[in-house]
Predict the structure.
Amino acid sequence: MGHSLAFWRLAALEGLSLVIGQQVLPMLWREGRRYQAMWQAQPERPERLADLAAKMPPVCRALTASPADAPAPYKMLMAFVNALVDTTVRSAAAGVSTATDDAVGAAWLAALTDPDDCHVDLPEAQADALFKAWEAWAGQSEAAGNDAFRIAFRLDAPQADETDWHLRYLLQATDDPSLIVSASQIWRGDQDAYLQQRFDQPQERLLRGLAFAGRLFAPILDSLRTAAPDNATFETASAHTFLRDVAPLLQASGFRVLLPRWWSGKETRLSVRAKVSGGKQSGKAHLSLSQLLQYDYEAMLGGQAIDREEFMRLAALKQPLVQVRGQWVLLDAEQIAAGLRFFEEQRGALPFDEALRLGLDGEASVAGTIPVEEVQAEGWLKTLLNTLTKPDKIRKLAPPDGLHAGLRPYQQRGYSWLMFLRRYGLGACLADDMGLGKTITTIAFLLRVKADTRPKKRQPTLVVCPTSVVGNWRHELRRFAPSLTVHTHQGAERESGAAFVKAMRGVDVVLTSYPLLARDRDTLTGVEWSTVVLDEAQNIKNSATKQAQAARDLSAAHRVALTGTPVENRLSELWSILQFLNPGYLGSEKAFRQRFANPIERFNDAEAAARLRRLTTPFILRRVKTDPTIISDLPEKMEMKVYTTLTAEQGTLYEAVAQDVLERIQAAEKSGDNMSRRGLVLSLLTQLKQICNHPAQYLKDGGSLDGRSGKLSRLTEMLEEVYSQDDRALIFTQFSGMGEIIREHLRTTFYDEPLWLHGGVKVKERETMIRRFQAERGPRLFILSLKAGGVGLNLTRANHVFHFDRWWNPAVESQATDRAFRIGQTRNVQVHKFVCSGTLEERIDGMIESKRALAERIVGNDEGWLTELDTASLRDLVRLREKGA
C-alpha cells in the first residue's frame, strides 16, 4: 500500500470514529438565495486531526503546478473528513423516516438525509428564518474557538506556601499545541500577526467562551467580574470537582484542558502491592489452577507505602485531594471506603489462576476498586512467572528413551516447554506452523511423561483428532514410539462404559475423533486421563458445540492443544481453546468479550490487545517457518507421509470391489487366461485407488463431496493452514476425474478458483497458468495431473507439494516434486504424500520404502510389476486391515 493511500485510509478511519462517537453537527450554507444542508465533523479532540495533518505525505497535496499553491494539509484533511462524515451519515439515514409536523424542520431534515440532494426546499422567507435560527444555535459550538485556535484551561496546584488552586486562561493553536497565548496577552492586545489573521476579534471571542464555560464551573463565572480575567482561583474541594466533573464537560464542548501530569498517573489513587507465596513444591507434584496460595497486600498512596494509622489520619481530613510527601493524590469518599475494606482483608488465600493473572497482567483490583500496582512473587511462583515471560530460560531436556527419531533443536525446545508447563499443571497450546513437527514433539512429550510416572500411578493419554488424522497418529506412534501401547476408540464395535474402562488397563495412548468425543461423551469423561491432547484444536473454536463442551468436561492432570491456527476469525476462538487448557483463566466468555474481544475487534484497542497478549503468550508456543532460528534447523526439502483413514462408505466399497475382482482373477488364473488376469489386476488396483481417493470418483454419482473421503477431508484441513499462512501449494493426482473433484470442492470450500492443468489444456493456456501462478499475487493453489504437470514446469512460488494419490514409481513422484523444489526456490519446500492406512496404498508404500535403493530398477515406469504377484500375495496386498470410521 502506497504512503498516500495509507494516509487517506487513516483519515477515513478517523472520520468514521467521529460519526460513531456522534461528534458531528448538522450545518446550513447560504449561496445567494439557495440553502444547502450538510453534516460536518465537530471533533472533541481536534488535535488528533492536527497531528494527522502534520503527517500528510506531500504527494497528497500534488494538485497544483506549484507547491506554493497547494492546499494546506489541515484544510485539505478537514475537507476530506467533512465529505466522508456527510456521506456516511446520509448513507446510515437511508430509509429512516423523517416525518414531522414541522414543515420547516422536515425540509431541513430531508436535505440532511437525502443521499443525492442537499438542497433545502423551502420558500425564501422560511429558509432565511431557518438559517438565522441555525446561526444562533450553531454559534454555541464555536464558543471554544475555531479551526485555528481553541480556548484552553490549565490547572495549577498550589505552591508550597499557598492554599489556592489556579485555573489559567489561554489560547492554543490547533495545528501546533506548543503555540500558546495567555489571556493577559489578549487583554493587553499583545498578539502576533499569526493570531490576528487566524482568530479575529480575540478579546470578544475569549470573553464569550469564558462566559460559556462559566455556566459549567462557577469560579470561572466569578472571575469575569474583573476587567481582564486571566485565571480563576478556588480551594481544594472545587479543584476536585473540576478534575472529576468539569474538565470532561469542557473537553466535550471543544475546549482544551491541560491537567497536572499526576492526575492521569497510577500514583494519584490508592493502590496496593501484593506479595504472593506458593510455599514449597515437590519436584514431582502437580498443581491445579484452583490451588490456594498465600498472599499479603501492602497499601500504596502517592507511590509510597502507607499503613493503616497514616491512612486513617489522611481520611480524617475529609479532603478529596490530599498531599502525601509532596505528591497530590485522590482520597475521595469512594477511595476511603475501599481503603477501609482493604485493611480488613489484608491477608488471605488466593487461587493459583488469579496469582498468574496478577503476575502476568497486573490488571486486577482488591476490595472492589483498588488496583494492584505490583506483584512480588516468592519461591517457586517467582521462578514460574519469570520463566513464563522468558521461555528461553526453560532447561532443555534430553530426548526421551524409546524415541525412534531425532528431534530438531526447536522441537526439543517445544518438548521441554510442554514438560515445564505440565509440572505446574498448566495447559499448553503448541501452535507451530504446519510441517514443523507438532506430532513428533508431542510423542516425545508422551514418552517422557510415562518415564517420569511411577508404574502404579500411570494413566492413559487421550488424543482427540479429526477422523482423517486418526490413522496418521496410529502410524506415527507405531513408528516413533513402539514402546507405547495404543488403543483406537473407533468403529461400530468400540467399547463403552465399564468395558471401555476395563480396556484401558495397560494402555498408554487412546486415539479417537472429534465426532466420537461428542457422541461418547459419557464414556470418555468417565476416565481420569494423564493427559488430553487435542490435535487440530481449532475444531473446538466454537465453544457452544457439543465437541467443545465434551472436551471441557474431560478429566485430566494436564491438557495440550495442537493447532497451526489458534485464531482464524474471532478472538472467541482463542477463549474456547484457553478455556479447555486452563479453565477459568480468562474468565467467563461474556467477561472475555467485554474485556478483550469487543475492544480489540471493534475499536482496535491496542491496550486491551497488549493485556491479552501478556496473559496468553506464556501458554502458546508458536514458531513459524520464516523465523531465522527455525530455518537454520530445517532441511531445504521435507518429505512426510500423511496417513488418512477410510470413511465407512469407502471401507464398504473397498471390500466389496476387492472381493468381486479377486474372484474373477482367480477364475481367469484357473482357466489359464494370463492376459485377462493381468488386465483384471490392473483394473483392481485402479478401482481401489479411486475408492481410496473418493467414492464419487469411483461411483461417478455426482453426489455430495463433503465427509465421504478421509483424504479429501485431510487435504482440506491442511489447505486451511496454507491459506492462513499465505503459502502456495501444488496438488498432484494421476486421475483427471479426481482433479475435477478436488477443484470443485476447493471452489466451494475456500471460495477460490484453483488452477487446474491436465492433458487437455492447450499449450498457450498452460503457459498462461504458469505465469499466473508465478506472479506476485497469483492463485494459491495449482492442481496438476501427474502426467501433464510432472515434468518441464518451473513453479517455484509453491512451498507445499501434495501427492493426493501415489504413482508407485519414486522417480516419477520426485520429478513432480521438483516442479517446486528447483533453482529459484527461496523457501523450504514441504512434500506431503497421502497414504490410506490399512489399504493397498500403505502396503505398496511399505514395499517400496523397504527396498528404496532398488525401487527404480524393480518397479519400472508403471504398476505392471504388481500384475506378476500370485493370487495369494495379491489378496494379502489388497486386504483391508483397518475398517472405515
Remarks:
- Confidence is low (pLDDT under 50) at residues 853-861.
- The radius of gyration is 37 Å.
- The chain has five domains: 3-142, 149-259, 266-389, 391-630, 642-878.
- Residues 391-630 form a domain with the Rossmann fold fold (CATH 3.40.50.10810).
